[in-house]
Amino acid sequence: MRKCAVIKDKALGISTQCRCDTKYLSFVSRDCWSAFGPGERLSPLSELLTPLPVSKRPKGDLETGCLLVNISDQEPGGGMLDWDRIAAVDEINSDKTVLSDGDLIVSKLGMPKGYIYLLPETERELIGSTEFIPYALRKPDMDYLILYLLLTPEMRNAYACLETGKTPSHKRVNPEEFLKIQVPRFREGADTGRLNEGIRKRVLEIEALLGRREKIQEKLEAVFSQAFQYDMALPARFGKGVSQPTQSLPPRGRRSTSLAYGALFRSPALRMSVRFHNEITQALAEVLRGIPTVKLGSLVLTPVHRGCSPRYKAEGEIPVVKTAHLRDGKVAVSEEEFVSACDYERDERAQVQDGDLLIASTGKGSIGKAAVAWSGERLYADSHITIIRLDRERYNPEFALCFLQSVLGYFQIERDYTGCTNQVDIYPDSIAELLVPDLTLEEQEHIVGKVRAELDRQDSIQAEIARLRGEIDAIVREAVF
After folding, report:
1. Using the 8-state DSSP alphabet, how is residue 357 labeled?
2. According to DSSP H, which parts of 240-326 are helical?
3. 389 CB contacts (<8 Å, ≥6 apart)?
4. CB atoms inside a 10 Å sphere around CB 459
5. Whole-angstrom Cα Rg for the chain
6. Is 131 within the bounds of a domain?
7. How crowded is residue 30: how many other Cβ atoms within 10 Å of its Cβ?
8. Lowest mean pLDDT among 36-40, 240-244, 405-409
């Protein structure tokens, strides 16, 4: 259904960009910038946060090593940085913002998703995307209360109203308008010290639970190493690469290798890179040659292919699946990014069906991320997602997913991707050439069952995290209402 609004001339002057869209004008004119509705005890965010002067590190070699925060590596909405996905770097490929001086960082890009984090003190300088804005807290003794106030559903809806930009990758919130948002003052008589401490304790509990959850990759490797008789030390020896499953592994350091002419013919593209011919990659290839395998492309109902570039429609009916939506082997669809049903019907290549295996096929730190779609609803894959529609009478998509997240799967992606720096790709033809174990459906299900038992324990951890997060939200509301 189309929406329309009557706009008075003076309303255009509210925005520095002369915005006249309905959601923006409704928020700033009707709601008077208030995220929580009308009230008497309102104050702007500028009374809680002070933006810090932006200091940048130019691309190239760094004089001293830094810790690098990438937005795509962090989970939004939780308020806590995932330090296992923060890399120590001595070289950067683009300008970065210095974040260390801030108490809290907020990403202009994707703000409604909740890329907002408290910063602890670090021995090394922390740098990150220029989308991050560092802020000092005017009330540092209420740091957790302020953080989770900023992450409430009401605040995230306010950010969505202020966003400007045509497509999700270009949608940003103006930092000046961010500070104009009106929020309730903390209630007089509220024991903010006690309430802040209550949140802090629950955050520590969540961090402990997340620490247990991170071990799922090790559990998966344990299942596959037992099934295919390879050394559990192989993943650590392989080290951190560009693919998502390797991001928690130790750094590799520099590598060299000797290359026999005969080895060139093992690569259909006559690859001469160390990445293809190094000792650990060849050792993993030898393990793979020791088990019956079949090419992934021989198991599909339709050729392996990528989705399409979506034409986003705010009032569209079909959710768009992007790399960020592939989480923990599942498709977590955003509520904000849609295409029309007409575009969905026209772009058959982008249509996602239940049981499709989806692989992120571009981007450093994201390539190799995978999930199986089981939502039961119509989905539209963007052009960074490769769709593998397996013949489920021959191959279990859950088994294929688990295998590609094991070292025997992701080493092939690390070996076969092309490109450099952050512009890396693995093309559908290369994904179709990936080797997977040639097992019966019963054998596949037996292995999946072992992995699923670990994932079920993971789900119980996630449920406990959700309970604690609910308690945090209740504490925030106690402090302001």
Report:
1. E
2. 261-264, 274-277, 279-289
3. 300, 301, 302, 353, 355, 356, 357
4. 10
5. 24
6. yes
7. 9
8. 240-244
Measure the CA–CA gap between 384 and 397, rounded to whole angstroms.
20
The whole-angstrom separation of Cα 7 and Cα 216 is 53
- Bridge partners, residue 51, by sequence: 135
Residue 120's SS3 state is: coil
Report the distance separating Cα 156 and Cα 178, nearest Å: 11
Return the CATH number at 55: 3.90.220.20
473 lies in a domain? no
Angle, vertex CA 138, rays to CA 132 and CA 139, nearest 5: 115
Query: What's the Cα-to-Cα distance from 472 to each of 79, 277, 325, 418, rounded to whole Å?
Result: 11, 51, 25, 44
Are the CB atoms for 413 and 434 separated by under 8 Å?
yes
**pTM (predicted TM-score):** 0.70
- Domain annotation covers residue 100: yes
Q: Which two tokens stand for residue 113?
A: 């998703």
Which residues, in sequence order, are CB contacts of 225 under 8 Å at separation 6+? 231, 232, 234
Q: What is the average pLDDT score of the chain? A: 87
Sign of dihedral through CA atoms 176, 66, 216, 371?
Answer: positive
Q: Is the pLDDT of residue 183 over 90?
A: yes
253 within domain boundaries: no
The number of distinct structural domains making up the chain is 1
Question: How many Å apart are CA 158 and CA 150, to the nearest integer?
Answer: 10
pLDDT at 216 over 80: no
* pLDDT value at 1 more than 50: no
d(CA 70, CA 67): 10
176 Cβ neighbours under 8 A, 6+ residues apart: 16
Name the residue type at position 467: R
